[in-house]
Amino acid sequence: MKLIFCETSLSSCLFFAFIQRIENGRFAKYRYFAHAKVNDSDFFMITKSCIFFVTKGTFGQLTCEWQYCFDEFTKEPMIVEGRRLRIEAKERVKSVFHAKEFGKIINFKTPELAKWVLAKLEDARESLPKC
User: What is the value of pTM for the model shown?
Assistant: First the structure.
């Protein structure tokens, strides 16, 4: 039996175990910071260095649909249209001539949840060591 020790809350411990289940542990190296449920099957997860959009499949499998590390952001994340979190980042597939701007918009159920997620994302980014 594998024991998991967490210094924070029960919620953090549960999501530490949850992050280890995403794609069979592929993302277990990341340190959990916060999460929010987007809808019945999707989660937005914040770690100490990246963000993930995770989908729960029909049979309970967890898949990371996309991820961005903080150093890939090209603009500060922002709330648009009340409840939408806008993330702009470098496109992973670079053309021969330059990298294009790219990003995602996450639609949360309420403006309050979107603001909470943005605040947590800012807290996680501020906790990074300054060079």
Answer: 0.78
